[in-house]
Design a protein that fits this description.
alpha/beta; 60s Ribosomal Protein L30, Chain: A; Alpha/beta knot; six-stranded parallel β-sheet; four-stranded mixed β-sheet; 9 helices; 37% helix; elongated
């Protein structure tokens, strides 16, 4: 007899819709007063045979703190897991491989924002340590706004081991570090690339920096350089995209 998969709450309009489209939804809760967006969710659920029920505001708030439910919630099966070996296999032989590695990013909102950016720039996966890092909580999934269905999070026991295995697969690893001697714009990022970014305040650990092929920094046009990890991720990934677009245009 197989065990039933535990269901996890997915709230927020974009995240709930993505979970239904991905086939993870098992039950849809909607607020009594439905709007145009929640009508769309009801249609998706009914097309997929997902049970729909009306929920009170208190029931929705019980799963979505601070009123972030936007009038809807999906009870869904867990996100598909991808392990490091499978990621390395996916990247093998690819010239356009792109991975983000997050070192001790502990705020789930920052993790969700990084995922959203990663989906925009075609990142293959986001790699995080399984300890002292944010997990894919419902809050992170909500902030990701559907990106959690597109970009897998690979949880690893050792980020150092992940770096070495990615390097062995031909991925060039760059650690983001303020004050690094090379700007990202001056480094060739057109090949298979892994970008390491550090958590709030602590940055990338010294041992992880040493394991990287090189360090890179941003060169903003002003002296204000305080960016959180989500904003920095967007800046670095934009630079990767800019270089690859220029190379493709010849």
């Amino acid at each position: 007899m197989s065990r039933r998969q535990p269901l996890t709450p997915v709230y927020g309009l974009h995240a709930a819709e993505a979970a239904l489209v991905a086939g993870r939804g098992r039950e849809l809760w909607l607020a009594r007063k439905e709007g145009e967006a929640t009508v769309r969710l009801r249609q998706l659920a009914e097309e997929r045979g997902v049970r729909v029920r009306t929920a009170t505001a208190e029931e929705l708030r019980g799963h979505a703190p601070q009123g972030g439910d936007q009038g809807c919630l999906v009870l869904a099966t867990p996100l598909e897991r991808l392990d490091l070996a499978a990621l390395v296999a996916r990247l093998a032989g690819r010239r356009d491989g792109l991975v983000v590695l997050l070192d001790r990013v502990q705020d789930p909102h920052n993790l969700g924002s990084c995922l959203r950016t990663a989906a925009c720039f075609g990142v293959a996966a986001v790699v995080c340590p399984s300890h002292r890092s944010a997990a894919m909580t419902p809050a992170a999934v909500k902030v990701a706004s559907g990106a959690a269905e597109r970009v897998p999070v690979v949880a690893v026991g050792s980020l150092l081991d992940a770096v070495e295995r990615l390097k062995g697969a031909g991925v060039w690893i760059f650690a983001a570090e303020e004050g690094a001697p090379q700007a990202a714009a001056a480094v060739d990022l057109t090949g298979p690339v892994g970008l390491i970014l550090g958590g709030e305040g602590s940055g990338v650990r010294t041992s992880v920096v040493r394991a990287a092929d090189a360090t890179v920094t941003l060169t903003p046009p002003s002296s204000f350089t305080t960016l959180n990890v989500a904003a920095a991720t967007a800046c670095f990934l934009y630079e990767v995209a800019r270089q690859r677009r220029a190379a493709a245009e010849g």
